[in-house]
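Progress note, sequence design subtask.
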């Protein structure tokens, strides 16, 4: 059974994500309401992405210094207030600037929230806990953009107010829930913490953790594959295969429905699997799923590929988050999670551009075989790290999962 504080946090995540309306409609708002060119509107997303890359390690470090709860509350309250101001900014430079500031505030939520989940749970519970948080995210994201679409038809400004209000409401839930964090930490976590060496201050000590740095590098290829669902995949399915936009939306809905109904039970059933097995298997399935698009010519075949990579996603992401949480010294949990989430932001900045470039220059077979190769590369690197340690005669223990 998960601690009730994990449920509190996931409730706040659900409320916040259920109000996610501005980011999915930002380019539409800028091109339709503000009459920007498509290129200039895309620049706003670039500013958001760059800010997300920068803020992830900063938020992680601040959560270690000031506490996860404080950074989470500041993130929610400040991002909510910024959204109330956003519609009143009209100049190009002003909107680009406030977009970056909003990204700093909004994206600073993830590292401390993930660190807090790790702090509240023991090693055997973490996969299930991170799966629950992803359930809250995906359930919220299945609500927010749908409502946002109807609101946008009447007033784009309403999107900012509703999104801002839900962020502030989530912050209020965090502030007023009966948190008892110290009592929620299982004895197993405290015992494990006592065996770890006291960490040095700053990111220099984190970057000296070669296992963690290797893991971040190994994850980057498959992280870039994930974002092809936003970039190369819609172009391939709608433009090249002539499948309608509505049908493409239904294909992606398979991903959300599967996550909502099966991710938590799946990770509960796999809670005793080693990180090595789960991360490698998840990466391999993600690669196979997207790679299968190379031989998919119709909606049914594409739906099958979505099922495959969704299963991979449901296995991979909770396991990778749990691994980082297990690996991080307690006093540096935020720093570790900051660098981990920064990897996804970096993949978001590179992956969509790279996928579209390969699609345009070399065709769909090249891009989808490339995603298969990326998934296999991550799986091989994760599998090989454990093998190298065993070959080198490294110390093995009952907690060997921490080294993958």
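Output:
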């Amino acid at each position: 059974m998960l601690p009730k504080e994990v449920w509190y946090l996931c409730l706040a995540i659900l409320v916040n994500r259920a109000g996610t309306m501005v980011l999915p409609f930002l380019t539409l708002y800028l091109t339709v309401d503000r009459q920007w060119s498509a290129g200039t509107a895309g620049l706003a997303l670039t500013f958001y992405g760059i800010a997300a890359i920068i803020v992830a390690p900063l938020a992680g470090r601040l959560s270690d210094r000031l506490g996860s709860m404080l950074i989470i509350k500041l993130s929610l309250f400040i991002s909510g207030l910024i959204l109330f101001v956003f519609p009143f900014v009209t100049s190009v430079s002003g909107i680009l600037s406030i977009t970056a500031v909003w990204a700093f505030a909004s994206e600073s939520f993830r590292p401390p929230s993930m660190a807090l989940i790790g702090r509240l749970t023991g090693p055997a519970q973490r996969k299930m806990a991170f799966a629950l948080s992803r359930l809250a995210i995906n359930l919220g994201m299945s609500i927010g953009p749908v409502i946002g679409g109807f609101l946008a038809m009447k007033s784009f400004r309403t999107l900012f107010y509703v999104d801002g209000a839900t962020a502030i409401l989530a912050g209020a839930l965090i502030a007023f829930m009966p948190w008892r964090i110290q009592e929620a930490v299982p004895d197993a976590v405290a015992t494990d913490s006592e065996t770890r060496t006291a960490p040095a201050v700053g990111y220099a000590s984190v970057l000296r953790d070669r296992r963690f740095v290797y893991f971040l590098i190994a994850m980057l290829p498959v992280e870039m594959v994930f974002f092809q669902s936003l970039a190369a995949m819609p172009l391939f399915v709608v433009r090249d295969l002539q499948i309608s936009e509505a049908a493409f939306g239904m294909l992606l809905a398979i991903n959300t429905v599967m996550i909502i109904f099966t991710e938590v039970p799946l990770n509960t059933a796999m809670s005793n699997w080693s990180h090595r097995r789960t991360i490698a298997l998840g990466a391999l399935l993600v690669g196979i799923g997207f790679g299968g698009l190379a031989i998919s010519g119709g909606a049914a075949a594409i739906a099958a590929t979505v099922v495959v990579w969704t299963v991979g996603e449901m296995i991979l992401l909770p396991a990778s988050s749990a691994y980082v949480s297990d690996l991080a010294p307690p006093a540096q949990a935020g720093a570790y999670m900051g660098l981990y989430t920064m990897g996804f932001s970096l993949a978001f900045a590179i992956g969509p551009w790279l996928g579209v470039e390969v699609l345009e220059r070399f065709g769909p077979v090249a891009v989808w075989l490339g995603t298969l190769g990326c998934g296999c590369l991550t799986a091989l690197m994760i599998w090989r790290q454990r093998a190298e340690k065993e070959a080198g005669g490294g110390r093995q223990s009952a907690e060997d999962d921490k080294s993958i």
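Residues 334 and 367 are 35 Å apart (CA to CA). Work on this subtask will continue into the next period as scheduled.
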